[in-house]
Amino acid sequence: MRLIPMLVLFSLLASPQIARSAEPTPMPLAKVGPWEMNYDTDSCHLLAAFGTGDQAVSMRITRLAPGSSFDLTLYGNRVGTSDLRVDASIGFGDRPAEIKRTALSGTIGSERKLPMLIITSLRIDGNIGFTKGSSPIPEVTPAEEAATTSITVKLPSRKQFRFETGSLAVPFKALRNCTADLVKSWGFDPEVEARLIKRPETTGRPENWLTSNDFPRGPNQRGQSGALTFRLDVQETGRVSGCRVLFRTDPDDFADLTCKLLMKRAAMSPALDEHGKPVKSFYIRKVQWLAAP
């Protein structure tokens, strides 16, 4: 059994690279109907459908907290693959599809399983955002959102799509309002969060927080893997006061175990407000548990 360390996985999924190989023109898919805003307990989702018939693909844009980063999930037979991970290149608006990500594939639905593809840690401008020990990259502006009218996704086997989203100004404004309400519901001030000069950071040896020796027995025996996104609540002193799983795949064993271990082992330094004063905040990351093949 093996576990990809949380911070290594995050870097793998978030590091932009340049896709240099020449590719055919992506297939345009028109949006069918308006964007829909879904308010979940721990996340905010924009939903839209593109194309018709055999070419139909649904899109979900997800944010788990305020900021410019989001996850992109595609649903439809056209994005199906037998590989657990696939290379994807993404472009926004008139920009070429030069942002590379490792996308995770899967299915949804118990009876009629629909293929899905999850592409994480995207920004319209192609940047990453906060990195440890550095200043935050400026947020994407409403003007940049308004100027973005399409999303291009290139996948292996020459599958390439251009989703004609229309201007993202209005839907992304709704997304910002949703995440501000989300943070309030967690007990944090979205205005303070927006002006942080430093987010909570890991201290010590975070690679020891979750190890292969921690792999739960049941999933190990069944050869099951799992992925999840968690939130740690970090007080002004740096103390981790809470852990919550915001997204998970089956089975539940991974979610329960991850928070149990993080509450025992995680060590953090606090966030700093615009005046350099320590304040309570939160830390969100993704982790993937992988069973041995």
Polypeptide structure, described:
This protein has 293 residues and is of the alpha+beta class. The protein folds into two domains: 185 residues, no CATH class; 90 residues, TolA/TonB C-terminal domain (2-Layer Sandwich). It has six helices and 17 strands. The protein has a nine-stranded mixed barrel with strand order 2-3-4-5-8-7-6-9-10. The protein has a four-stranded antiparallel sheet with strand order 1-17-12-13. It is globular.
Write the layout of secondary structure elements.
Layout: E1 2-4, H1 6-14, E2 27-39, E3 44-50, E4 57-63, E5 70-75, E6 85-92, E7 99-108, E8 114-122, H2 142-147, E9 151-155, E10 159-164, H3 169-186, H4 190-194, E11 201-202, H5 217-222, E12 226-234, E13 240-248, H6 253-265, E14 268-269, E15 271-272, E16 278-279, E17 281-290
Parallel strand pairs: 2-10
Antiparallel strand pairs: 1-17, 2-3, 3-4, 4-5, 5-8, 6-7, 6-9, 7-8, 9-10, 11-14, 12-13, 12-17, 15-16
Brief descriptors of the model:
four-stranded antiparallel sheet; single chain; alpha+beta; 293 residues; nine-stranded mixed beta barrel; 6 helices; 38% strand; TolA/TonB C-terminal domain; disordered N terminus; 17 strands
Query: How many distinct domains?
Result: 2
Distance between the termini: 8 Å
For the residues shown, what is the average pLDDT? 87
**What sort of overall outline do the alpha carbons produce when their principal axes are compared?**
globular
Q: What is the percentage of strand-forming residues?
A: 35-45%
Number of helices: 6
What's the Cα radius of gyration? 19 Å
Which consecutive residue ranges, at least 5 long each, have pLDDT under 50? Answer: 1-20
